[in-house]
Amino acid sequence: MDQNVIKVENLVKYFDGRCVLDGINLNVPRGCIYGLLGRNGSGKTTIIRILLGLEPPTRGQTFLLDAESSELSAKLHSRIGYVAEGHNLIQNYRVGRLIKLCKDLSLQWNDEFFNHLIETFRLPADRRVKELSIGMRAQLNLALAMAIDPELLIFDDPTLGLDTVARRQFLELAIELIQQQGRTILFCSHILSDVERIADRIGILAAGKLVVDCPLEQLKERVKKLRVIFPESAPPNLYLTEIINQQIDGREMVITVANWNKQKQTVLETFKPSSCTEIPMSLEDIFIECTNSNPVSITG
Amino acid sequence: MFALIKREIQDHLVYFIGAAAFAAIFILISIPVVGRYESIKRQGYDYRTPEFTVGIGVPVVAIVIIGICAMGATQMYLDRTRKISALLSTLAVSRSRILLARIVTGILAILTLLVPLTIAAVILLRLYAPPVLMYPGMVFEIFIAVFLMAFACYCIGLQTGWNSGKIIPTLGGIALTCIFVPLILIKGFGVHIVVILVLFIVASLIRTWHTFMTTSL
Questions:
Q1: Which of A102, A125, A277, B157 has the most CB atoms in a 10 Å sphere around its CB?
Q2: Using one digit for the tens of pLDDT, what is the confidence trace for A18-68?
Q3: A104 interfacial to chain B (CB closer than 8 Å)
Q4: pTM of the complete model
């Protein structure tokens, strides 16, 4: 059995002649919590929809749990929990009816855990889905995805619309799930602090390409933002490769470099800077730098 | 599979109630009409009164065709707009099962309409002498042809409901109906019409199947 629960091979997707995904390659190993990030319209949801077989790819192949996405059997679907962006629930159904339908159509259902979630979220069974708030819909979708005890969880912006308390509850639940052995999570979110808290590998989509695909700690080590002060005015070119961003103001230069290593440090030292200090970067800072107009590939 | 069929029936219960009510009304209207034929016949007049038959028959056929076509279209249209299959296919259900359950529900709705009518026809034919010359198996042949005709209309509805452009499938459906109805009137309820309808249904189902399996949900 392949160790990669999710495999994406040279995935290309066009929408009305516009290239949304341009040759994406991605592997998510078993037990990994993968945070897939990108700006609006960068193709995160499209990747997820193609993975689940909801959208056909233009080119390339995707695999979930060793099966091609377009040929996912009902049995394999029963091992995958999915929380969709915007929460694709049947809006005119009552909550109780929707729960019964999902239960009837699932091969396994953890009643105890599901009831615990419903009580925690205080979801009313007699109200129609469309009458629920966005947050409650998110909670219902989450509870339905968790109830099948999935081996693979796919969250497409699951905390969208949740208040702070519900978001915290969700994250704690996710952390609880992570502790269960062998569970893999693919997590898309615009709330980067959430992703930073739970993800152990990060992928960043920009301009149709996966510009970052590496463990979170490694990413933080490899992307460096430096404030360099030179004795005289800062040189216009440092002859460093993979510069993500560079700002010069007199003697001061603020530079963001990808794949920082000793060689690059040696090159920088040849310019004999007066001082060189590292500016700490959060995942949000790295994300903003990586999705600018000059994306640099960071993989590992 | 049973859960999927149950969901389809519950969501489109109005068509089942409509089919049952329509069958009941038609039977209630037919009883005095058959009785009238019988009295005309006893008085020695020509009992074949085509204008009366056509007067009832044409609206009945039109209502049945529109109703069944509308059911197929509604099933697919609501699925598309409410993203029902998008949810169902992320559960332990394949797309083919979703479509199969939908088609089975359509067949059940057609049978809800036709079975009571057929039973009533058999009973009435036993009680009264038929106004036209009957031969063994004629009721069965009519039942099969009408069932296939209704199912063909249902298939047109399925295609119309799933397409974002409604005009071409609707016009196509109307054109095909205009071909099928005169064909039945000319050729009768025989093997020919059954073969043509079966071929049409198979082609239509393959097209619907292919579209549903490959389109984005």
A1: B157
A2: 889 988 999 998 888 899 988 888 889 999 999 998 889 999 999 998 899
A3: yes
A4: 0.81
Same domain, A148 and A31: yes
Q: Is B216 on the interface with A (CB under 8 A)?
A: yes
Q: Do B7 and A101 touch (CB under 8 A)?
A: yes
3-state secondary structure of B1: coil
Whether ipTM tops 0.85, in short, is no
**What H or E segment, with its residue span, contains residue B168?**
helix B167-187
Domain locations along chain B: 2-214
User: Is A56–B3 a contact, with Cβ atoms under 8 angstroms apart?
Assistant: no
Contacts of A80 in chain B (CB under 8 A): 90
Which of B87, B89, B210, B213 is most worth mutating to test chain A (most A CB atoms within 10 A of its CB)? B87
- The answer to whether residues A137 and A209 belong to one domain is yes
For B130-140, write each residue's pLDDT tens digit: 666 677 777 88
Quick one: A48 and A81 in the same domain? yes
How many Å separate Cα A106 from the centre of its chain? 26
Edge-to-edge strand ranges of the sheet holding A209-215: A80-83, A152-156, A184-188, A33-38, A201-206, A209-215, A298-299
